[in-house]
Amino acid sequence: MKRIFLIVLDSFGIGALPDAADFGDTGANTLASCAASDKLHIPNLTAAGLGNIDGVTCIPKTDTPTGAYGRMAERSRGKDTTIGHWELAGIISDDPLPTYPQGFPEEVLKPFREQTGRGILANAPWSGTEVIEKYGAEHMKTGDLIVYTSADSVFQIAAHEDVVPPEQLYKYCRIARKILQGKHGVGRVIARPFIGTPGNFKRTANRHDFSLEPPAQTLPDAVKASGKDCIGVGKIHDIFAGRGLTEYVYNKSNADGLAHTTHFAAQDFEGLCFVNLVDFDMVYGHRRDIDGYAAALSEFDRWLGDFLPTLGDEDVLFITADHGCDPGYTATTDHTREYVPVLVLGKGVKPGNLGTRQTFADLAATVADLLDVDLDTPGKSFAKEIL
Questions:
Q1: Cα distance between residue 296 and residue 287, in whole Å
Q2: Residues contacting residue 101 through CB under 8 Å, at least 6 positions apart
Q3: What does DSSP assign to residue 153?
Q4: CA distance 3 to 274
């Protein structure tokens, strides 16, 4: 194959994994929650075989699926963006990245204060919108940075753009990234700029992630090393710490990311276009907005209907996710430990059931096979099953 489009619907889980109880996520099902909304209208995903996937009972099946379909289990010990994408790219993480349910220790905070010259507010797990409502006014008065985390392995810094311009905030994040190594090597340091006035704060699109470098070769590394193109759309550049990409662009929204994907599909490249659509997770999943999540899936489905006819004879499209974030799961507002779908579409793809794959890394092995690149991964390719 000449071109692979790999689209990650960030957080689109399809049902709790067998070990979900270990993560506090018993019964989570992102797709089922969305299926309860009258905003969900996904004829193209249904036609591809989404409802035919093992364990999916909340949407209709089709007798004539247009694609290959299956579900993948996460073998890594985590349910966050970094771990999920690394596994999609071929790396299984046996040990979870560090989390900080009690906030960050002084051995992290002291050098951060010293090197930024600013104080710290919050330092605890918080909802991103709630923490700026709680501490935003004090931050604007003092200039102290709002530092917080979540159930995921993240060090997040929120600052008002009028107090700390985004480029300055990014500098502070780079300082934190250098501090947070070794035993404190969190998956991501995240800049969370916001604007507005007390009682009316709003996060902006200037978020930026500073990820830990992958510990081994990834799919993007392998594609680039082979001399082929590897294009990152959305958070992909940040998730892989810039490694393995020959070109990249950030997204302002899902719609923007889909427009970028359409743009690259019109170009003559050879290799991988790796896309992340984060609004599903950031805007709808964490905010537990069922109707918003369902509407976003419907928006993607409409785009998919227009995109599929543009694929060439040697193009393959993979649609998957990196974890769950069930908008109907009220026990927490965090990610949920779920199976993710894998849908494979293209003129050369043989429709059929891929069953339950034991690791996301099977996808990496498959893409490597299709592009004829060498990748050292424990994943097992299903390329022969789809061609």
A1: 14
A2: 125, 151
A3: S
A4: 11
Give pLDDT, residue 223: 98
Q: In what order do the strands lie in the sheet with 247-249?
A: 247-249, 229-233, 271-277, 3-9, 315-320, 340-345, 68-72, 352-357
Domains within the chain, CATH numbers bracketed: 3-95+213-386 (3.40.720.10), 106-210 (3.30.70.1250)
Q: Which of 59, 26, 27, 23 is nearest to 43 (CA)?
A: 59
Residue pointed to by tokens 């662009």:
249
pLDDT at 285 (0 to 100): 97
CB 336 within 8 A of CB 43: no
- Residue 236: predicted pLDDT: 96
Low-confidence ranges of the chain (pLDDT < 70): none
Phi-psi region of 73 (alpha: psi -120 to 50; beta: other; left: phi over 0): beta
> How many CA atoms, within 13 angstroms, populate the side-chain half-sphere of residue 317?
22
